[in-house]
Write a structure and sequence with these properties.
With 325 residues, the chain is mainly alpha-helical. It has helices spanning 3-23, 29-43, 48-57, 62-75, 80-96, 100-113, 125-141, 144-158, 163-175, 180-191, 197-226, 229-238, 250-265, 270-286, 292-319. It has 15 helices and no strands.
Length: 325
């Protein structure tokens, strides 16, 4: 283990232990409600981007910053609710930074705040109870659509997660970035002489590229910059990985874009294509990277953008005499 890795592990543990100390103090639903109300006050008027920038301008160790916040609140005589809210807000700010320190803060926060899975260190019962009370307080204060989205996310992530399905979901995440695995499949079909493969290849490449580019860059960048910081704090408490460019799901956008285009070439295979795309979308919720709403919007965005690109591609190719499309 390198010194850098050891330092990040130390920061992760420090974030976790500081949060666990605060969670032990959350004993009643009323405690949790007061903490969430204070969090909303602290986060008012700020965005994820501004908080991420603040954390990145001050590259102090994430664990030390979170612990220092707890110490300052304690020394000032703040109530336990105000202290817990300050620590959670500081932790959320650290997780929003796109740095190695930020990733360490994410892991430490998730270890303290998310349901325990096999193989993880078991948190003390009072810590788990505090985390559950905070989750319920956050969900109680969400709108009906957001709360429904978060509860589905929690139901999926609290279901049994065998080690083999975790590994499979992680592999799916790696293999399906950008939708290139779909393109590879069509190229293999072309080499094997499958009827329609040439047409699929010509339509798929621009459609997949356009859908992925639009969602991964202007759309995600816009929503991350505009996302209220309280959404990051809520994600932290609920258990979703915060601080990421997560709306909508890029994996799902690319997969449904590809499924849509391929279904126009091989309509009888459409159920298979969409089943594969749906599996990829579900895997993003399963691994805790996205809410179901991120995946749903990504699916519709992928299909819509790919259809627009497909039509434009056909029009351009027809004008050039390629009527076989």
């Amino acid at each position: 283990m390198t010194q850098s890795t050891a330092n990040l592990d130390k920061q992760q543990d420090q974030v976790r232990h500081t949060l666990e100390d605060e969670l032990r103090r959350v004993r009643t639903p009323e405690d949790a409600e007061r903490i969430v109300a204070e969090l909303e006050r602290l986060a008012a008027g700020t965005t994820e981007q501004t908080q991420a920038n603040a954390a990145e301008r001050n590259p102090a160790p994430a664990g030390a910053e979170v612990a220092r916040t707890a110490q300052i609140a304690s020394d000032s005589g703040a109530s336990r609710e105000v202290e817990a809210a300050a620590v959670l807000a500081e932790t959320a700010q650290q997780t929003a930074a796109q740095t190695a320190e930020g990733e360490a803060a994410v892991k430490g926060a998730q270890a303290a705040l998310t349901p325990t899975r096999p193989g993880q260190t078991v948190s003390p019962p009072e810590t788990e109870r505090g985390a559950e009370l905070l989750k319920e307080a956050v969900l109680h204060r969400l709108g009906p659509v957001q709360a429904f989205d978060a509860r589905i996310f929690l139901a999926i992530n609290r279901a049994p997660h065998p080690a083999w399905t975790d590994r499979l979901a992680d592999l799916i995440s790696v293999w399906t970035v950008g939708g290139w695995i779909w393109l590879g499949g069509v190229m293999i079909a072309k080499l094997l002489g499958v009827r329609g493969a040439n047409r699929a290849l010509v339509l798929l490449l621009p459609s997949m590229t356009a859908a992925t580019f639009v969602v991964e860059y202007p759309v995600k960048a816009f929503f991350r910059r505009k996302r209220p910081f309280i959404d990051v704090v809520r994600a932290l408490v609920v258990g979703k990985k915060p601080g990421s460019w997560s709306f909508p799901s890029g994996h799902t956008t690319a997969s449904f874009a590809c499924a849509w285009v391929l279904s126009t070439v091989w309509p009888r295979k459409a159920p298979l294509f969409f089943a594969l795309a749906g599996t990829i979308g579900f895997s993003r919720v399963y691994v805790g990277a996205h809410y179901p709403g991120d995946v749903t919007i990504g699916a519709f965005a992928g299909m819509g953008l790919s259809e627009l690109t497909r039509r434009a591609t056909k029009m351009i190719m027809h004008r050039r005499g390629y009527t076989w499309l």
